[in-house]
Design brief:
Layout (H helix, E strand, L loop, with lengths): L1 H6 L2 H29 L3 E7 L5 H16 L4 E2 L2 E9 L4 H13 L3 E5 L5 H5 L1 H7 L3 E3 L17 E3 L4 H16 L4 E6 L2 H15 L8 E4 L5 H13 L4 E5 L2 H13 L8 E3 L8 H4 L2 H4 L4 E6 L9 H13 L13 H18 L8 H12 L6 E2 L4 E2 L22 E6 L5 E3 L4
Parallel strand pairs: 1-3, 1-4, 4-5, 5-6, 7-8, 7-9, 9-10, 10-11
Antiparallel strand pairs: 2-3, 11-14, 12-13, 14-15
Helix pairs in contact: 3-13, 3-14, 7-8, 9-10, 14-15
Length: 422
Amino acid sequence: MNRLKLIFPMWIFNRMQIVFVVIISLIVSFFNILYAAQTDVLTLYFSADRTTTRASAISIEQGIKTALSEIDNHLGGYPVVLKILDHRGSTPRAKKHLQAYLRDPSALVLFSGIHSPPLLASREYINTRGILVLDPWAAAAPITRYPSKMNWIFRLSVDDSKAGFVITEHAVTQEGVRKPALLLEQTGWGKSNKRTMTKALEARNLTPTSVKWFNWGLSLESARILLREINLAKADAVFLVANTPEAKIISQAMASLPKNERLPIFSHWGVSGGDFAEVVVPEIRKEIKLCFIQSSFSFLDKLNSFQQGVLEQAYHLFPETITRPTDIKAPTGFIHAYDLTRLLIAAAEKVDMNTHAEVRRAALRNAFENLDSPIQGLIKTYVKPFSVFSESNPDAHEALGMDDFRMARFGPQNEIILLSND
């Protein structure tokens, strides 16, 4: 050191230190400017099927927009835009939407839609790359149960680890079903429900008379064949897991059978996510008995002041399409998306948005797991809805529980009417 001092006088060392500090300051300033530029706007991605189950996607979109309008479409001081994408039920196309999210430094969260398969197929990709997914509809049980405490998918929706029990409880306790057949779509969603429904029946010392599978694109004749086989197995009811396209076909097939061969259908909520009620019209529905699972809030019931305020805000935002409660088609999507966006708003209040995308998303994920203050929603007031996932805490990323679900039916105006649990 003394030798260096002889070669370079102290004033040179001091100047070098100053230059070093200036360079570091410029670097920090550059990255601060870069990060700020990245957050001029925050983008919420919404990747769903707007083609075959359009009603569910529109309903989710309306719920998100209604909640955001309450905060003037800003989070953390930055304007928010909703980027709407249509994967048309295609898992590869949905994967491209995830990749687009990762390339976008303004992307904050990604809302999913009605279909479980795209999330199941990309669950590893989502969780290893830090894609913050908010699920207001897709119900397959494994979606939120990635085996790591760094779990990036949060759901406010029906969870199939519970749905099968709710459907079975209603069918057995209130309708006297003893010999149900399971009629399930050949997907991860269908398989998830087979496990849960079988377990729920076993808890009552019952077993399915048969388990039948179908693929998307089911034909009317194929549906009739499946129903005839179910009848031959002496079933007294059908537990159905289908989305709207196939549910329409199966219901029409059931209505076409001789009256003594028609069985009551106890369905998952895929029937409520599209144009089911417009195609399977009241005249057809009179010929069959159909009920399906929903969450336990309806705009048709008596509303408190908060719920009434949300409905009036929807009237204001969508005056051409929503003028009365029954105009909200696939209302589950609106209800869940609205409540989930309210949780997003509460979590965002804990996060500094003026930072790098990865840091911002990680902080928001952590904030979701630490929502300690009560948050008012349509279904209920949420008190610590999420927590850290572990094998001993499998419901950590599930905002709704068994008490939040009811069975429902279509009314004469195609409205969804919740059934009493009594």
